[in-house]
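User: Here's a chain of 435 residues. Predict its fold as tokens.
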Amino acid sequence: MLSYDSFLATKAIRQHPILSSLMALAIALGIGSFMTIATIGYTIGKNPLPDKNDFLYRVQLDAGDPNNQSDDPRNRPQQLTYRDATALMRAGAAWRQTAMFGTQGVVRPENENLLPFEVTGRAVYSDFFEMFGAPFKFGGTWNHEADQDGNLVVVLSSQTSERLFGDEDSIGKHISLNEELFLVIGVLDEWDLVPRVYDLSFSPIEEIFLPFSTAVNHEFRRVGNTNCWQPAPPGREGFLASECVWIQYWAELEDPSERDTYLSFLNSYVLEQKQFGRFQRPLNNAIHTIDEWFTYVGGRDAGIIVIGVIALLFFIVCLINTIGLLLAKFLSRTRELAIHRALGASRRELFSRFLVEAGCIGLAGGLLGLLFTWLGLLGIRALLLGEDGVEHITQLDPLLTLLTFLLGIVSSVVTALYPAWRGCRDTPGVLLKGL
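Assistant: Prediction complete.
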């Protein structure tokens, strides 16, 4: 029966090519606009480490300005002070943990044909690489002793290693970084971590990684936000002892059931610090899984939601227009309906044939909508050319591609319910009388 209904649907579409094309185009325009925004929103909020979600936690300690208190949980500082980050690292209450901050440096190649160049870097603890699933092409990370001693060791991205040493294994070689000689102990393989979970950036993975204490001791330039609710004392030591927050902190637990225990540890630490006059706000610390952190940070920017709502409304308008076109098409086929009813076709059979026909139109609309979605993403990519991560967020996702097809079929079938019911509700006598 389905094959016969499909044959009749195809025949009916060929008999009214212009009207059928207009319906497919209306559906495609609605799908294209909506799915373009949906693709960007989905990609921005997609967790690249779903298996780690219940084990990795972003740590927040409420060391904010006591004169600017608020019940809003977003009023907590997103980063930690140097004092607190290093104290938590010494305590080692989590299975793995890392404090980190962005940095920059200048590499002076040994090859005289290469000019010195600036690199982006991240100062981390050795647990960082296991926590975030960093793949190694050569070598590995440094040990915990290097974390404590501030050794001059470095892990390179694959691109940086190739730039300096070609395709060969660069483990054991040295690079001049900020006029210091660093030993290369690891080279990362291609690392598809978008967005970068640890700082929610769409920028490429950093070019170098070095021990946290090394970057601090050698006064590497900090890259990122630094917020101080009171002026920092003068000098390097004064800044490190200040209430300025500039360090991101992540902890990994062996089991999600340890979450409350770890939060209790953080609360105990803050209560202890209160005895020294710090943390003057009410107790308001928090830890977030990756998904929770995405929601927490992403909730500040509702722009993508507003655009998504507008695109959805446009999609609905397109579907309303499609309803009108389907109704006009079905009601114009009185002769055909009269003959089928006179030959014994039931209302249910005619109703199902109308829905199959609408589904065929929806499939064409879905295919065309996929093309419009691709063109829309290309347009956004051209508009945001040069912005970090734009190529990633404007790529079609396989799941959303499938959803585009299904959306075209389902939306057309839903919009056809009333026109189909309206078109086949009359009795054969009424239909024949209208001929």
